[in-house]
Amino acid sequence: MLCLLLTSCLGSKVYRELLPQEPLPPTELASGLASLSAKDCGTCHVAIYDEWSESMMGQAWTDPVFQADFQERDELYVCRHCHTPVTEQQPELTVGIDRVLPSVKTSTVDNPHFQPELVDEGVTCVACHLQDGAIVGPHDDIEAPTRGGSSPSDRPEPPASAATRCPDTHRELEVWQAATGSSDDCVTCHMPAVDRPLMEGYPSRPGRQHTFAGSWEGDMLRSAVAMSLDGGELLVENRAGHNLPTAEPTHVLELV
Ligand code: HEC
Ligand code: HEC
Ligand code: HEC
Ligand code: HEC
After folding, report:
1. Could you tell me if 10 and 166 are in contact, meaning their C-beta atoms sit under 8 angstroms apart?
2. Per-residue pLDDT of the chain (256 residues; tens, 9 = 90+)
């Protein structure tokens, strides 16, 4: 069904911008880390790992609905840019586009940095937390074993950023903030606040759950709309921080 979006992009400038301009650099390993795998992070950050594993971020690749769609799209390379965003998760690097119609044909080269065991991890921890060889997170006062740094929201846009211009949740957020005066952002709504230690044996800190709830979560979806009757008029208020529904272009919201 994502073909709707892709068809509308086919042959257009937007579609051509989906191509990586140059292959991504390999991810530098932070000192103190054994590997890029979420499983390693999970040996210390147990609670966060468990939440992430259950979330759509952790299942972005293994999710059967995604896999079915991906196969139907003939394993279109752009899907990997968001569903497995780290360089080491790419079996091949796309270096050119030979043909758009009737189906996309690309030129690829083998990726020398490919680590097959990372693919199933989908949007894995280091996609958000590793930058220039340093672990980035919200706390300024964190010491070993992993270095702290600026917030993950400071990360540069991923190479497929042109694709996000199709269902553009980020621009939608700006429109919603301007309309409502709210300063809530993606983290406020999608990563609920929690006080807990980052690892067993450490002091409690203000942190964020890694559940990344979306429209598939009942309470989250219910929180998105408020309905009231004003005389004969039904008022429907959008309380999601963006269009409702957003992102996945095939999602439809029915009010019954
Ligand atoms: C710009 C980033 C981006 C790209 C490119 C992308 N996706 Fe997604 N995809 C997402 C996000 C974000 C979600 C929503 C995850 C959630 O529900 O929390 C999603 C969800 C999905 C879902 C719904 C899964 C479910 O169980 O509900 C399917 C199916 C899917 N994507 C297929 C694809 C396919 C096939 C491609 C390539 C043609 C693709 N996506 C490319 C970001 C992307
Ligand atoms: C050997 C245990 C261990 C491993 C493995 C580990 N961490 Fe940590 N991490 C810690 C400890 C300890 C802290 C600091 C806790 C404190 O001071 O409260 C920390 C802090 C952090 C922070 C907060 C940084 C900040 O500046 O706010 C992030 C983010 C983080 N780790 C992510 C990761 C990721 C991602 C991985 C895997 C790639 C990982 N960690 C692997 C133990 C570990
Ligand atoms: C005010 C709260 C709020 C803010 C701010 C917010 N969201 Fe959402 N988001 C929701 C709610 C509620 C839903 C479920 C309804 C829907 O699908 O639109 C949702 C759904 C989503 C979905 C769809 C997931 C799916 O399964 O279809 C994505 C992707 C998403 N948000 C991304 C973002 C991003 C990225 C940002 C920041 C740019 C953001 N959200 C900011 C509340 C918020
Ligand atoms: C989609 C991006 C994303 C992914 C994937 C992700 N995180 Fe985070 N993480 C964040 C953000 C954003 C914050 C900071 C929230 C804030 O306070 O503003 C954060 C905060 C943290 C912190 C600091 C403590 C806290 O609770 O805020 C740790 C530790 C951490 N993440 C570890 C991990 C580990 C381990 C994984 C994988 C199992 C992971 N993260 C996956 C985005 C991500």
Report:
1. no
2. 333 333 333 333 334 445 554 556 778 777 778 899 999 999 999 999 999 999 999 999 999 999 999 999 889 888 898 899 898 999 998 888 888 888 888 888 999 999 999 999 999 999 988 877 788 888 877 765 564 444 554 444 443 333 444 457 888 888 999 999 999 988 999 999 999 999 999 999 999 999 999 888 999 999 999 999 999 999 988 899 898 888 777 788 887 7
Helix (H, G, I), strand (E, B) or coil at 206: strand
How far is the centre of ligand 1, averaged over its atoms, from the C-alpha of 230 (Å)?
37
Residues touching ligand 4 (Cβ under 6 Å) are 38, 41-42, 45, 48-49, 52, 57, 123, 125, 127-129, 137-138, 151-153, 187, 191, 198, 207-208, 210
CA of 139, closest atom in ligand 4: 23
What is the extent of the structural domain holding 136? 1-166
Residue 94 within any structural domain of the chain:
yes
In a domain, 139, yes or no: yes
**How far is the C-alpha of 120 from the C-alpha of 122, rounded, in Å?**
5
Cβ neighbours of 110 (radius 10 Å): 10
The total of structural domains in the chain comes to: 1
Question: Which residue owns the Cα nearest ligand 1 atom 13?
Answer: 248
Residue 174 lies in a domain: no
Q: What is the pTM of this model?
A: 0.89
88, part of any domain: yes
**166 CB burial (10 A radius; 0-12, 13-18, 19+):** middle
The rounded distance, in Å, linking the Cα atoms of 118 and 135 is 18
